[in-house]
């Protein structure tokens, strides 16, 4: 099958067409059809996983002409490498879970809801597979529309404010990226580039000043999506108001668009500027980690707490990515998947409890573990994953990130960021304690029922993955490794080239590239021991 | 005494104009002799068929380059493209007019001939290569539009709209004529190509005060017509007061015609002054976009909202004009055509939701439409997203090319201001959707009745908004061919 990638991406659209012919009152049929469509999409995407060769090339590529008008040539140019492969799989994997979680949560306008979910899936997959900058932009924007409606129609009390904020924030960022994209194209045209194909832009040599402006525009758009401090304010609003499935998708996949954007576009396109801005971005990431953790600690609403924990987790991802070494980026990628799994699971958990009690305030709960033992167990495993206990996936990601960034010029940032690991344990375990332990004194809580079969079925795949990645992450890392090595080489090679380009003033050279080049190979081994020591300390703190 | 020489005239370039004029006059007669008081729908149908036939006629002229009337009228791809745009505008307007006029009790048969005459005027503006032809076309268009704006004579607001439009329009015409006179005084000719020749031979054209003043005065006149800030004051009142289908027509047709004439005038006759006029246009574009969008943010009446939004859209088109290169100008052509589809489509929905006497026209009156009338609301959503410039709609591709033109020419900041405006505009378009989908309805919308002509108009508008958004080449290629030989 040569166009399995297109098939995966557009299967949900076929599902939408199918849904249009189902009467809106037969809610069960609508739900089941959507579930089947997403499961089939997932199965089709598994074909790619098995057929994927572990090398740095883009695979399952398709490249056909699309628009050719005037100075622009856009192509339907798609393909995946080890980096996007996992995000595609993550997307197709999360979608059936999200659909399943809406079976009882969404009772009104089911048809429209399912259509939104499927459109969203196509939008997200499209953005991950696009190798044409224009095509990427189209999917990037299209994604906004269904999410906007999901928050606005099925959201909570403040949904209108949250949905507008979500849309406008993202739109401002992406519009600036659009200008940068156009500018980049014209720069490329002067160098003989003929279309929007991403790969040819990698070899484009831009002078540092241009790179800085273009990088800023791209980075701004992606930073809003990640979201990075101080552009994160839309996220808690959107999360709190969104319906459960919306929150799950938002956290698990949409936020990855931002970090993926850095890995795929902003960094390899403008490597020197990326080096220049690495300290700034690392600073914002670290502020995000510490600040969001502290804010999460004082939240009274569980969902808001999880939302802020997202900001902190993605701060880690950014730190790892901007370490520009294999460990850091691998950790960032793993952590992206982890965050998708564990935060997705946390939102599901919040959803379960909200459906039963119609409140998310921590003070309304207490002692639930007596009444809901299965729920408590699952919540506990996910909590451990979220705080990064060894044996769970969270540990692998955070460890690699800290390892990588400590070995880069971001050493001092890493030191501060490590406190985030502790803080995450504080707020997560504290909320777990307040919700699950203590007296079961609230009479409403005494009648709560434990998770039913459907709800357990939703959680099991997530729990399995938590342990699989936590104990044996090798297959995941092996598939992405060549692509990441290539990315690291791209970033390095360009910065070496920058030195040989005559006429560039020393001050314009990227600040951070020299230490990386001069880093002795043996040193990294020594450093890896240090975070390894730190991590158990943290964990012993958690177990307490 | 000299004999008056009548040159051999090739009628081909103005055949569509002649056809439409004949049709319009015939319709006037039919209207007189037909039994009074009955249905007037047949007039709309005849007009529509006539418009379609004219479109075929116009389309057959593609690829030609014929000058006629001593070089005062030309048939070229540029003219054909714009004529098509006008015909699309008029065709959609005719389709959405009939039931509305009946509801408002002003279904006078003169309406359709007036629309057709306005189109003839626009066509002359697009194909005129002489200041006089352009001016004649402009006046023919404007005078009919004054009447159309005040067509609902029992309605005070409509009267106000007509009068206001007339007074301010006359004022702007004065500016334009003065400018043309100055250009004629400087160059000794009114033919655009000859003006270009004379100006091209000047050693320092930008130092010629009369020429520059003439250019600026003409620009002022056209800025009135396309509703560019600071000459936009008439727009909201006229748009709000005029019968809604006429508002739809006025927001798309005359704007396109204004841009057609402006483009030809400035790119053909005054390219020597491009540095000067692009500076002025830069300021105009920024002002127009920003004022239009910011004012639209606070509008409650949806017609006023779209009036300000149409000001903003003129600003986006001016961005492409400021660039003045192939990408930007082709973008204008593409955008004007797309704008016709999406804006008239939006107005069609507004007409349906409104009640007799132009009531129920506030943004909040759309509450709950999304689930009571899903198909209608979906169409409206598409139009609104297209207006906001969100892919995959034609509005996005149009803006992409307009802003690309600016970037290509080095106007990075203009493009940035443009996109930020675009992002701000999303707010007020989304607000309509907020009411359509996020608010519970108090109404059942049982009065909303989609008749066959309106349904046809909506289908055409949806297709015209969606298809060029996904496969833009179908229109963009033609737009680029149209501006190539300008």
What does this structure look like?
The complex is a heterodimer of chains A (544) and B (486). Chain A is mainly alpha-helical. Chain A contains 23 helices and two strands. Chain A has helices at 4-20, 27-51, 82-101, 110-129, 133-142, 144-154, 159-190, 198-202, 208-225, 234-241, 244-269, 271-297, 302-321, 326-357, 368-371, 373-387, 393-406, 411-436, 443-446, 453-471, 474-500, 513-518, 523-543; strands spanning 59-69, 72-80. The longest helix of chain A is centred in the N-terminal third of the chain and has 32 residues, at 159-190. Chain A is globular and about 70 Å long. Chain B has one domain. In chain B, helix 1 (15-33) packs antiparallel against helix 4 (111-127) and helix 15 (374-388) runs antiparallel to helix 17 (412-438). Chain A binds chain B through residues 66-72, 109, 112, 137-138, 141-142, 144-145, 148-149, 152-153, 159-160, 163-164, 167-168, 171-172, 175-176, 178-179, 182-183, 185-186, and chain B through 326-327, 330, 371, 385, 390-392, 396, 400-401, 403-404, 407-408, 412, 415-416, 419-420, 422-424, 426-427, 430-431, 433-434, 437-438, 471-473, 476-477, 480.
């Amino acid at each position: 099958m040569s166009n399995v990638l297109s098939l995966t991406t557009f299967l949900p659209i076929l599902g939408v067409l199918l849904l249009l012919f189902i009467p809106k009152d037969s809610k069960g049929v609508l739900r089941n059809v959507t579930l089947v469509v997403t499961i089939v999409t997932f199965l089709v995407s598994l074909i790619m996983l098995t057929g994927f060769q572990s090398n740095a090339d883009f695979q399952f590529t398709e490249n056909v002409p699309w628009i050719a008008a005037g100075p622009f040539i856009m192509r339907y140019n798609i393909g995946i490498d080890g980096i996007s492969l996992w995000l595609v799989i993550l997307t197709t994997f999360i979608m059936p879970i999200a659909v399943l979680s809406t079976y009882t949560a969404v009772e009104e306008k089911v048809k429209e809801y399912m259509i939104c979910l499927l459109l969203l899936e196509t939008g997200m997959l499209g953005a991950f597979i696009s190798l044409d900058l224009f095509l990427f932009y189209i999917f990037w924007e299209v994604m906004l529309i269904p999410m906007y409606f999901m928050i606005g129609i099925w959201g909570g009390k403040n949904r209108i404010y949250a949905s507008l904020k979500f849309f406008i924030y993202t739109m401002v960022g992406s519009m600036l990226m659009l200008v940068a994209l156009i500018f980049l194209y014209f720069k490329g045209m002067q160098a003989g580039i003929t279309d929007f194909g991403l790969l040819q832009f990698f070899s484009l040599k831009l002078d540092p000043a241009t790179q800085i402006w273009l990088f800023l525009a791209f980075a701004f758009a992606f930073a809003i999506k990640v979201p990075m401090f101080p552009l994160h304010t839309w996220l808690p609003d959107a999360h709190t108001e969104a319906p459960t499935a919306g929150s799950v998708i938002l956290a698990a996949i949409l936020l990855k668009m931002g970090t993926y954007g850095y890995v795929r576009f902003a960094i390899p396109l403008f490597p020197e500027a990326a080096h220049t801005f690495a300290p700034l971005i690392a600073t914002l990431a670290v502020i995000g980690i510490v600040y969001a953790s502290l804010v999460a600690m004082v939240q009274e609403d569980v969902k808001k707490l999880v939302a802020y924990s997202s900001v902190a987790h993605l701060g880690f991802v950014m730190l790892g990515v901007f370490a520009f070494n294999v460990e850091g980026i691998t950790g960032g990628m793993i952590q992206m998947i982890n965050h998708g799994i564990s935060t997705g699971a946390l939102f599901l958990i919040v959803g379960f409890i909200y459906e039963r009690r119609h409140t998310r305030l921590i003070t309304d709960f207490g002692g639930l573990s007596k009444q809901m033992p299965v729920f408590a167990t699952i919540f506990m495993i996910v909590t451990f994953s979220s705080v990064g206990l060894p044996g769970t996936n969270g540990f692998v990601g955070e460890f690699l990130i800290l390892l990588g960034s400590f070995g880069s010029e971001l050493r001092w940032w890493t030191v501060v960021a490590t406190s985030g690991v502790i803080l995450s344990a504080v707020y997560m375990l504290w909320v777990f304690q307040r919700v699950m332990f203590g007296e079961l004194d609230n009479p409403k809580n005494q009648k709560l029922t434990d998770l039913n079969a459907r709800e357990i079925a939703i959680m099991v795949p997530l729990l399995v993955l938590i342990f699989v990645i936590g104990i044996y992450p090798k297959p995941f890392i092996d598939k992405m490794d060549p692509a990441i090595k290539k990315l690291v080489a791209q970033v390095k090679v360009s910065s070496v080239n920058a030195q040989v380009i005559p006429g560039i003033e020393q001050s314009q050279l990227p600040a951070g590239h020299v230490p990386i080049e001069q880093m002795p190979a043996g040193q990294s081994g020594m450093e890896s021991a240090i975070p390894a020591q730190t991590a158990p300390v943290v964990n012993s703190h958690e177990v307490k | 005494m000299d004999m008056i020489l009548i040159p051999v005239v090739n009628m081909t370039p103005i055949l569509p104009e002649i056809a439409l004029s004949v049709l319009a006059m015939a319709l006037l007669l039919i209207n007189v002799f037909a039994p009074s008081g009955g249905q007037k729908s047949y007039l709309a149908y005849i007009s529509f068929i006539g418009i379609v036939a004219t479109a075929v006629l116009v389309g057959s002229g593609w690829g030609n380059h014929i000058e006629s009337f001593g070089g005062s009228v030309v048939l070229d791809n540029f003219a054909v493209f714009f004529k098509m745009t006008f015909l699309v505008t008029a065709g959609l307007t005719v389709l959405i007019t009939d039931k509305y006029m009946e509801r408002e009790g002003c279904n006078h048969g003169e309406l359709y001939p007036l629309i057709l005459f306005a189109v003839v005027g626009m066509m002359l503006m697009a194909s005129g290569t002489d200041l006089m032809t352009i001016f004649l076309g402009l006046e023919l268009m404007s005078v009919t539009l004054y009447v159309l704006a005040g067509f609902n004579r029992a309605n005070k607001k409509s009267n106000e709209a007509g009068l206001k439009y007339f007074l301010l329009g006359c004022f702007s015409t004065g500016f334009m004529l003065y400018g043309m006179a100055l250009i004629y005084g400087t160059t000794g000719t009114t033919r655009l190509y000859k003006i270009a020749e004379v100006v091209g031979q000047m050693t320092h054209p930008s130092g010629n005060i009369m020429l520059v003043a003439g250019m600026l005065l003409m620009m002022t006149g056209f800025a009135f017509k396309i509703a560019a800030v600071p000459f936009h004051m008439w727009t909201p009142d006229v748009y709000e007061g005029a019968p809604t289908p006429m508002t739809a027509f006025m927001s798309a047709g005359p704007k396109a015609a204004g841009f057609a004439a402006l483009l030809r005038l400035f790119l053909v006759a005054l390219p020597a002054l491009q540095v000067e006029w692009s500076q002025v246009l830069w300021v105009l574009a920024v002002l127009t976009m920003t004022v239009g969008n910011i004012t639209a943010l606070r509008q409650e009446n949806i017609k006023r909202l779209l009036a300000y939004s149409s000001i903003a859209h003129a600003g986006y088109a001016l961005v492409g004009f400021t660039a003045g290169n192939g990408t930007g100008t082709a973008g204008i052509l593409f955008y004007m055509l797309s704008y016709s589809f999406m804006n008239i489509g939006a107005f069609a929905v507004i007409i349906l939701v409104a009640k007799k006497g132009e009531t129920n026209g506030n943004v909040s009156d759309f509450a709950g439409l999304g689930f009571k009338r899903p198909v209608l609301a979906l169409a409206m959503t598409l139009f609104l997203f297209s207006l906001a410039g969100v892919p995959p709609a034609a509005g996005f591709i149009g803006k992409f090319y307009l802003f690309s033109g600016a970037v290509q020419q080095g106007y990075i900041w203009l493009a940035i201001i443009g996109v930020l405006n675009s992002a701000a505009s999303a707010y007020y378009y989304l607000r309509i959707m907020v009411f359509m989908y996020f608010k519970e309805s108090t109404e059942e919308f049982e009065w909303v009745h989609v008749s066959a002509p309106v349904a046809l108009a909506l289908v055409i508008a949806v297709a015209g908004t969606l298809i060029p958004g996904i496969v833009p080449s179908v229109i963009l290629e033609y737009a680029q061919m149209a501006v190539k030989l300008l």
